[in-house]
Amino acid sequence: MSDYKDREFGAGKVFKETTAEKRYVFKGRIINVRNDRILLPNGAESLRESVEHRGGVAVLAVDDKGYVPIVRQYRYPTGRELWEIPAGKLEVGEQPDEAIHRELREETGLVAGKMTPLAMFYPTCGYSSEIIRVYLATDLTYVGAKPDDDEFLELKYVKIEDLYKMCLSGEIIDGKTLVAVLKYCSTERK
Known about the structure:
By secondary structure, the protein is an alpha+beta fold. Helices cover 19% and strands 42% of the residues. It has helices at residues 96-108, 160-169, 175-188; strands at residues 18-21, 24-27, 31-39, 45-53, 56-61, 67-75, 80-84, 87-89, 110-121, 132-142, 153-159. The strands form 3 sheets. Strands 1, 2, 3 and 4 form a 4-stranded antiparallel β-sheet that branches. It has a 4-stranded mixed β-sheet with strand order 8-5-10-9, with helices on both faces. Strands 7-6-11 form a 3-stranded antiparallel β-sheet. 21% of the residues are buried.
């Protein structure tokens, strides 16, 4: 019997799908939903449902004593409250570098003397164009929080080591928080 590694396939092939027709079924404030007709790499037709999203930013803010602000808020699509790092969507025409400073200030009252890109990922690449850019904020100063009028949240500070344990135990289930904490703890702290 051959080794399972002998069963690899597809190396060097191009798998690009081509849009034959864009069909919008919904256009909203935050997302647009499409049901497109596409051409597969072999020339056959198929349908793809996709969500257009401007993208978002998230920030892991670590102070000089190793504390990180996290927020608890109700997330309507999940039907539950989640603990997360500060984050938000990009406003129309807003650049990620601007958005990350805005979100950190709004949700925590902090400004960062240094903001460093930490990661970039597609949280749901099977159906959405959303990209989340994750930043590491350091050299923090408190200037006062200004949450949006429709934003209700609890803020608390936890040690990065405890946040890491919360991620591993399943207490934290928010994707952007998992990515940020696991990336930081595996690369930045060596």
